């Protein structure tokens, strides 16, 4: 499979993406749905090529696994937007595009004559997504943010952490603040596309990372909006403003952790839990089975937890039974056993362990790609969504800095390839 | 029902028509992971008809009737959580265990563009509405299902909530402090992201249908969406043959990708006050060090990144000592003036009621709910320049739009609807 010719719902859509840290994931997702993504990076390579982790821990613009992951399937061209001739080439490139995706500081592209208001006249169907820290109109968007400061200012960090509030709140890993903004950029693009199919007109999509973080904390937000209550963080479970809920995480007999999630509510599940305790000879040890038996007789209504004393007791007993079972089983056996009782529990996997789980392997999430440049196979996570005609296994590695990928397009040969620019930049550096 | 505005012909001037005018969704979703997806589409003007089971008052969705509440009243229609997740939708009741109920659903599917659900895999099929059966009713139907593990594979029968999706996909373990158990996420992050990806799947499939005339079934597995959110660290393991990381191995408040130090959340004076500081490079550190101004801060030891990384524990301890004796506002003001990335860890009330940026964005619109009255809800983090979202109508009360839909759309008479009610069909 050659880059830029994938099947999928967005086949035929051309995206010009200005390389960035904040919106890279958006370009990846559009490409995985079939769009052709042309990545514009400056001479010498975009700085994100120096984000680790690196192959064999060797820092090199072609060894960045951050770059590999976020740029699979994209083609690259090298353009110096501060150079007039290159800016003109970029303008021409955008003239041939359906979508522009960028995360530049709000004033930069306008000053270069490269923004939506200046380019849409010649291309009325053009859709343009801008990802900025606080939205394009907000003066604070000129400031620099990191994923950490986005998650701190926008709400996620307040809700995450531990029962012990002398420990700091936690920013979840994986740069989710930036990725959430990228996901909303993609949502905006497909919205605008469906509308363009009906109106013939494109439009601008303004994405605020701060607003995206604010829209990602569930009860953290609506408890305040509705009841002026402030949620408090708890270990491994939802922050809450009400009566604090009991622990949901437990360490299994093999040392790994499990999540018991939302405990059983229906009588069938309480009955299955009683049988499971019995099978493992743990009924006696659990002791007071009365609340589980009441659960098995009547079930509980989740809405009454915290309101009705008996309901709260029965729910607590369900949770304690799960935690006891977890402590006597491997994390995996606990997960399977609980799910077989109809109770949604899970192993707290590392991402690497999840990739090796038989279910995800069966569904093709672990994609083996032979990388010609490296002369070896690399296992990538597959695309999150699968559509009719898309194939998770068709992954083309991210463009290397010194890699020429001449396109068949009319504009292709007129653009400097990354090869010549990269070589020039390196020679300059050596001189 | 109000007539949807006619879409403008190609090339027409910008209009006030909603972006998704004319698109109808027959919606079985619930909770946030599913209902959040169709909420976004409703906010952009799709007609979303939410279908609920009258026999249990829609309680399959745990948000139905649950907290928080605007006042002392309690009841199936009074959940603030349900309201925020379902605004701008129509709501009907329909009992699919009855033959007449199934007939009515067939009539509704026939005039819908999309069918959505986030039941456990296979539930809708067992009710007689598999994708093939939906296609038989409407050949170009788009069907998007969002389940924990998808409809194939060893765990297809298994169920999830947000925290279980996060656990199984690696997102819980990668959120926590060094030498501590996983902290995980203090909310269902994957319900939010699941909803976002489900909305993307629906719209992308509509776009494909626009182009090819073909509908399709997108079998979304929320755990796979979660798994794809940790890419670089997965590659680090598969490519560099590293053993899987374990809980408590390192703090997710630090940053290795990109590499930054100091980078963390530090205490300030007062009760539970914290500040997030990121030094992206030596220049940021130099700026912070001159604000701190102590010998240790300006020493050669920490001047370069390698030195700061070599003793990150000690560096964090020292920075925390400096921040702890100052207010959050002092730290943000002093360090922010240098241009380095800094932010307070904002409480809900601060980012909602005291933040000029969320206010200017229009992040907290007020909707009108039939029983709750005027209630603020969460807005959307994107603005479209031609036809933007709006949220004005609160979530539907149970069966609130039965007359509009059954009579207005499906052409039933008042008597017929009355009888359906008597027989427990609606």
Mind explaining what this structure looks like?
- The complex is a heterodimer of chains A (about 425) and B (about 425).
- By secondary structure, chain A is of the alpha/beta class.
- In chain A, about 40% of the residues lie in helices and about 15% in strands.
- Chain A is built from 18 helices and 13 strands.
- Chain A has a six-stranded parallel beta sheet, sandwiched between helices.
- In chain A, helix 1 packs across helix 8.
- The longest helix of chain A has 24 residues.
- The C terminus of chain A is likely disordered.
- By secondary structure, chain B is α/β, with parallel strands linked by helices.
- The N terminus of chain B is likely disordered.
- Chain B starts with about 25 loop residues before the first strand and ends with a helix.
- In chain B, a hairpin with a 3-residue loop joins strand 12 and strand 13.
- Chain B is elongated and about 85 Å long.
- Classes of the chains: A alpha/beta (about 425), B alpha/beta (about 425).
- At the A-B interface, helix 2, helix 6, helix 7, helix 8 and strand 6 of A face helix 2, helix 6, helix 7, strand 6 and helix 8 of B.
- Strand 6 of chain A pairs antiparallel with strand 14 of chain B, so a sheet runs across the interface.
In short:
The complex is a heterodimer of chains A (431) and B (426). With 431 residues, chain A is an alpha/beta fold.
Mean of residue pLDDT values of chain A: 91
Task: Please identify the oligomeric state.
Answer: heterodimer
Rounded to the nearest angstrom, the distance between the terminal CA atoms of chain B is 19 Å
Gyration radius of chain A, in Å: 26 Å
Question: What strand line-up does the widest sheet of chain A have?
Answer: 3-2-1-4-5-6
> Treating each run of at least 4 consecutive H or I residues as one helix, how many helices of chain B?
18
| C-alpha geometry of chain A | elongated
* Number of discrete helical segments of chain A: 18
Largest sheet of chain A: 6 strands, parallel
The biggest sheet of chain B, with number of strands, parallel, antiparallel or mixed sense and barrel status, is:
6 strands, parallel
Main interface: chain pair and counts: A-B, 161 and 166 residues
Average per-residue pLDDT of chain B, rounded, comes to 95
Distance between the termini of chain A: 39 Å
Q: Spans of chain B of 5+ residues with little confidence (pLDDT < 50)?
A: 1-14
Proportion of strand residues of chain A: 5-15%
Secondary-structure content class of chain A: alpha/beta
Overall 3D form of chain B: elongated
């Amino acid at each position: 499979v050659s880059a830029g010719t994938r099947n999928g719902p967005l086949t035929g859509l051309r995206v010009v993406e200005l390389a960035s840290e904040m919106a890279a994931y958006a370009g990846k997702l559009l490409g995985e749905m079939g769009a052709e993504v042309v990545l514009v990076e400056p001479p010498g390579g975009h700085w994100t090529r120096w984000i680790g982790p690196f192959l064999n821990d060797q820092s090199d613009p072609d060894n960045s696994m951050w770059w590999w992951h976020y740029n699979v399937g994209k083609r690259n061209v090298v353009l110096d937007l501060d150079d007039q001739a290159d800016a003109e080439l970029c303008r021409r490139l955008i003239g041939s595009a359906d979508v522009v995706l960028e995360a530049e500081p709000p004033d930069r592209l306008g000053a270069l004559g490269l923004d939506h208001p200046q380019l849409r006249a010649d291309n009325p169907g053009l859709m343009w997504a801008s990802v900025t820290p606080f939205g394009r109109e907000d003066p604070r968007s000129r400031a620099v943010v990191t994923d950490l400061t986005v998650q701190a200012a926008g709400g996620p960090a307040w809700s995450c952490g531990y029962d012990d509030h002398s420990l700091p709140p936690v920013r979840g890993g994986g740069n989710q603040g930036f990725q959430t903004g990228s996901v909303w950029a993609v949502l905006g693009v497909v919205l605008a596309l469906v509308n363009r199919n009906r109106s013939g007109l494109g439009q601008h999509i303004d994405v605020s990372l701060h607003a995206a973080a604010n829209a990602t904390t569930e009860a953290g937000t609506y408890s305040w909006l509705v009841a002026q209550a402030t949620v408090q963080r708890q270990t491994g479970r939802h922050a809450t403003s009400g009566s604090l809920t009991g622990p949901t995480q437990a360490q299994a007999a093999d040392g790994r952790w499990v999540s018991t999630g939302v405990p059983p509510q229906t009588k069938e599940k309480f009955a299955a839990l009683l049988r499971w305790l019995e099978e493992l000879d743990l009924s006696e040890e659990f002791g007071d089975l009365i609340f589980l038996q009441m659960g098995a007789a009547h079930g509980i209504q989740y809405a009454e937890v915290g309101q009705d004393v008996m309901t709260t007791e029965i729910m607590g007993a369900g949770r304690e039974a799960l935690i006891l079972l977890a402590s006597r089983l491997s994390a995996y056996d606990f997960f399977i056993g609980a799910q077989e009782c109809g109770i949604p529990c899970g192993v707290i996997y590392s991402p690497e362990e999840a990739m090796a789980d038989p279910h995800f392997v069966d569904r093709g999430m672990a994609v083996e790609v032979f990388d010609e440049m490296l002369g070896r196979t690399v296992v990538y996570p597959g695309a999150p969504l699968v559509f009719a005609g898309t194939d998770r296994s068709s992954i083309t590695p991210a463009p290397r800095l010194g890699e020429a990928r001449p396109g068949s397009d009319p504009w292709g040969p007129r653009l400097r390839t990354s090869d010549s620019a990269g070589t020039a930049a390196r020679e300059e550096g050596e001189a | 029902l109000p007539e949807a505005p006619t879409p403008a012909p190609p090339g027409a001037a910008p209009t006030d028509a909603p972006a998704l005018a004319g698109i109808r969704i027959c919606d079985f979703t619930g909770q946030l992971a599913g209902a959040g997806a169709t909420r976004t589409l409703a906010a952009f003007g799709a007609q979303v008809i939410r279908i609920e089971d009258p026999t249990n008052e829609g309680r399959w969705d745990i948000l139905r009737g649950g907290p928080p509440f605007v006042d002392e009243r309690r009841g199936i229609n009074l959940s603030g959580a349900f309201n925020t997740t379902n605004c701008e939708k129509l709501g009907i009741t329909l009992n699919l265990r009855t033959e007449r109920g199934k007939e009515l659903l067939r009539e509704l599917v026939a005039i819908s563009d999309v069918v959505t659900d986030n039941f456990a895999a296979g539930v809708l099929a067992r009710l007689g509405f598999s994708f093939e059966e939906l296609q038989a009713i409407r050949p170009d139907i788009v069907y998007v299902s969002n389940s924990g593990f998808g409809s194939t594979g060893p765990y297809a029968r298994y169920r999830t909530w947000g925290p279980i999706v996060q656990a199984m996909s690696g997102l819980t373990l990668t959120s926590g402090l060094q030498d501590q158990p996983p902290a995980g996420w203090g909310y269902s992050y994957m319900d939010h992201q699941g909803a976002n990806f489900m909305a993307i799947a629906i719209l992308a499939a509509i776009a494909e249908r626009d182009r090819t005339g073909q509908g399709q079934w997108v079998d979304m597995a929320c755990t796979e969406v979660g798994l794809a959110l940790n890419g670089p660290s997965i590659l680090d393991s598969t490519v560099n043959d590293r053993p899987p990381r374990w809980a408590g191995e390192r703090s997710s408040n630090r940053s290795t990708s990109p590499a930054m130090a100091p980078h963390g959340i530090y205490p300030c004076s007062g009760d539970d006050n914290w500040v997030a500081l990121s030094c992206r490079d030596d220049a940021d550190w130099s700026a912070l060090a001159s604000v701190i101004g102590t010998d240790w801060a300006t020493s050669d030891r920490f001047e370069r990144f390698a030195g700061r990384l070599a003793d990150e524990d000690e560096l964090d301890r020292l920075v925390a000592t400096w921040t702890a004796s100052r207010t959050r506002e002092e730290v943000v003001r002093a360090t922010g003036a240098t241009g380095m990335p800094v932010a307070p860890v904002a409480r809900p009330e601060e980012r909602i009621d005291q933040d000029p940026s969320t206010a200017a964005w229009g992040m907290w619109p007020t909707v009108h709910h039939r029983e709750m009255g005027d209630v603020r809800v969460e807005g959307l983090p994107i603005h479209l320049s031609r036809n933007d979202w709006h949220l004005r109508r609160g979530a539907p009360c149970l069966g609130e739009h039965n007359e509009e839909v059954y009579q207005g759309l499906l052409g039933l008479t008042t008597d017929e609807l009355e009888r359906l009610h008597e027989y427990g069909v609606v």
